[in-house]
Design a protein that fits this description.
Structural class of chain A: alpha+beta
Order of helices and strands of chain A: HEEHEEHHEHEHEEEHEHEEHEEHH
Strand order of the largest sheet of chain A: 3-8-9-14-12-11-10
Oligomer: homodimer
Helix content of chain A: 25-40%
Distance between the termini of chain A: 25 Å
Strand content of chain A: 25-35%
Number of helices of chain A: 11
Chain lengths: ~325, ~325
């Protein structure tokens, strides 16, 4: 989620050791189950319960703050592929993108595919990108549902979903498949910026109350390739992204983003024809909580046995 | 999930009308949100709440029956692609299978992809099947975790996950992306068959207690192509699959499967090197609950406004 300064080589090795140590502890405790693919894990009962509790806590705060004004939505892990186009995700983050590939051939090609497979060839080429993609951010499927004129005060959406980003990593904090809960604001530029800023502060408060060592920092997304450098520079110069970080691997290493606040200007408003009361393209902002990352940060901070966590932390969850 | 006798044409039209009617009611009530792709829906707050309640009810029954003997696991919506091979899913159900396609090219190909896109060409071919696939059945990622010798009594696993099957349909009961909760038994042939049969009966009981009109029937999976006919005939002759069906569209139409019990013989035991205490390949069986299907059946039976459902039903959820 964040581009941090690259540590020097000795530091990098020490950081990789920290990743391996935490990963081993989580696997030993049965919180994560190795699947053989980096960043894709099964979840044990206690880990699932903490994820559910974190999600419920976030939901309670959203409800306290916005009450019935926030529309509660959930989306499945897949969405129409054209959303990757309209959000420009495939243009800005092709390396993280994923489509759903399916088989549209007949009997004859199927026999060929299986014969090839028996001869040791990869059969993946027989499947091709369908009209579906994996959801990269929980809020992306929301914008098409808002097309048209917004109410006078704009809209708030509380949205949950599984996200996928193709970034295999040995760092257990960086999963390829993970859940995100976001509180989205669509309306004027002022409303969007105020939403992001108040929710960044609120997220830092929620996480601090869970006994995590929290900080905030401006951040940029990992845009792809040469042209991406300019996009990242613009995002940074305009202060569009702020991350809430937790110190997971010790003071000498950068914190890990567990929540992220983004102001999109009128990007989604333009792309999805969402208009403010005055007829101009709506601005939007969101604050996303990384559910697994928060759960992992809690186990890293308070130990692998939830029963031994501080009472004040368990009382909040 | 089931191959039912194909109704005659007038009946088929009447059934399609029923699909359209239920779908419109669910969309109007905000329980489902149209995404533009058949079988892929967003979920409204009440629908999500019913899904959660159904899942929790199933979890309570599993806990009552098996207590601490059942290992509770959850898996993300993606799994190593090689599991599609080892389960034979890609051989038997290529038309339902899906891999995760990702972009592995560099800057130059990316520029080409975007130029093609701007000229109106499909960019999907620039992404290729990765080492990940979408999970077709919640229990499939479980078997690799059981490789090796089982305890003397075998194993029980309570597993949850999002599943994907590429079968776009205008029937709201047939989603492409949906959640499944399964109770899996691995051990002797006798233990596996007894598990399937007792859980089919228990599932029918749970659903009947929710005011649904339930039946049970032997069933076969929708195997692909010509060779699939023989596989289906064998599955049917050996009575491997039993479905729990709910009458959703009226008495003149077949029921819709909302839970399914399957005995796999030693198929997964062989493929994943799971051995019983006596050293022979383990047998397995599972009972899967289709969470969205059960929730949809409840709205279809009791009405779109949950507050007006029978008190006895709401009390159980």
């Amino acid at each position: 989620m964040t581009m941090t300064a690259v540590p020097r080589s000795a530091d990098l090795n020490a950081l990789l050791d920290e990743h391996a140590r935490l990963r081993a502890e989580l696997l030993d405790a049965g919180h994560l189950i190795d699947t053989g693919v980096e960043g894709v894990y099964g979840h044990g009962a206690d880990f699932s319960a903490v994820c559910r509790a974190v999600d419920a806590l976030v939901g309670r705060v959203i409800h306290e703050v916005h009450g019935g004004a926030a529309t509660v939505l959930a989306f499945p892990p897949v969405m129409p592929r054209e959303i990757l186009d309209r959000t420009d995700y495939i243009a800005s983050f092709p390396h993280l993108s994923a489509t759903v590939a399916t088989y549209e051939g007949g009997d004859a090609e199927h026999r060929l595919m299986l014969a090839g497979r028996d001869a040791g060839h990869d059969w993946g080429g027989h499947l091709r990108s369908s009209d579906l993609a994996l959801v990269p951010s929980a809020c992306h499927p929301v914008y098409p549902t808002l097309s048209g004129a917004l109410p006078r005060d704009g809209a708030w959406v509380d949205v949950s979903g599984h996200c996928f980003r193709h970034e295999p990593s040995s760092d257990p904090m960086r999963m390829q498949s993970f859940r995100m809960r976001e509180i989205v604001r669509v309306g004027t530029d002022r409303a969007a910026i105020a939403h992001r800023d108040s929710w960044v502060a609120r997220a830092a408060g929620i996480l601090g109350d869970l006994g995590l060592r929290v900080s905030q920092a401006p951040a940029v997304d990992p845009f792809f390739g040469r042209s991406g450098r300019m996009l990242a520079a613009n995002q940074s110069a305009d202060g569009l992204k702020t991350e809430v970080l937790v110190n997971v691997y010790g003071e000498r290493f950068p914190g890990v983003a567990v929540a992220s606040g983004n102001y999109h200007r009128d990007h989604f408003g333009m792309q999805f024809d969402i208009t403010s009361a005055d007829g101009s393209p709506a601005h939007s902002a969101c604050l996303g909580f990384g559910i697994e990352r928060i759960a992992l940060a809690l186990f890293a901070a308070h130990g692998m046995d939830r029963a031994s966590w501080p009472g004040a932390v368990n009382a909040r969850l």
